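Open question from group meeting: does this chain pack into something compact, or does most of it stay loose? Before anyone orders reagents, we agreed to write out a predicted structure and look at it together. Recording both the input and the output here so the notebook holds the full record.
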Amino acid sequence: MYIVQGRANGVSRRVSLGKHGVITLQEARKKAQRELSSMNEGVDPAIEKKRAVAYSLTLKELSQKYIRDRKDLKPSSQADILKHLKTSFSDWADRPAVEITRDKVATRFQELSERSKAQSNQAFRILRALLNYARAAYRPDDKPLMIENPVKILSDAKLWNRVKARSGRIPTEKIGAAWNTLQKLRADQGQSIIGRTLADIITFLLLTGARWTEAANLTWEHVNLDGKYWHIPDPKNRNPVTLPLSQTAVDILRDRPQSGAFVFPGRSGGRVVDARSVLDKVSKAAGVRISAHDLRRTFRSIAGECQLELWKAKLLMNHRLNQDVTIGHYTETEDLRYLNKDINKIADWIVRQGVIGRSEKVVPFPRKAIKGGAE
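Structure tokens returned:
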């Protein structure tokens, strides 16, 4: 092995030139002269080696390192990163990340926005996070890999898409019909085990206002049917919480087999993946297209019908209460079993709508008349 040793900026450096037999002595001497000349001019070979590695880092490699280093990254976030790496940035994946420029970002953003504004926003929020990570983690000469994050052009030029917040939910007057549809599916003796599971999890979402992932990942070890509560150890907002279960929800869970780990298992024994077949039937009953997250908004509207205080509804849905200092700091937000009466009020209201929906003789009074007002 041929080696040359010199000093760069007062620091001793040793550089491998190549193996004897692979390069000749003459070639080794020429390389040694070039290395010593560079060191004499202040070029540190150790820093240059780190710089070469950093500058060759591909977007795919950067994504892998980002996922590895972010210990608290949720599986859904990891899935989003990998999805956009394979779709939105497939032709960038195996290229050095430093080659991504502001112009490239602006052009690709407009292209993706023509297909889906929301997905384009998501893709470039992910890219922004990846490149911010690269700038912070890779500083071969104590300078960031990039002068600035190229995604910044979307903010500088105000190019981010305005995406209207989703507001879908089951109309109040259709909640009874939706509930009856779910109970019919649950009672169907010809229903397969997975079919019954899908009907149960959608019913659970309507009764609790939970996120799909919270229900799908729920295991029996985090459910206490005798105590009428369930626990979410790692929710979206990172705040572990114990939530009350209504008697209606308890009865539904008691009917479920408890042989596996998951409360709502999928076909392969793992967690359930989706319930589109049941949501299609609920959508038909509701007269509008309904997603799993729309059931969460439906729960919030039902809480309003039950005249539940907003802060209670938010706690039951495991929302943060950052805006209200008094509630945020002086209200118990981790163990919500004290809201058992409120969750039962919501469940009873839903069941009552089902009864009304099944009766052809019941005519609901106008809302003003119910509240004591005059029509």
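Observations to bring back to the group:
The first strand starts at residue 2 and ends at 8.
Residues 367-375 have pLDDT under 50 and may be disordered.
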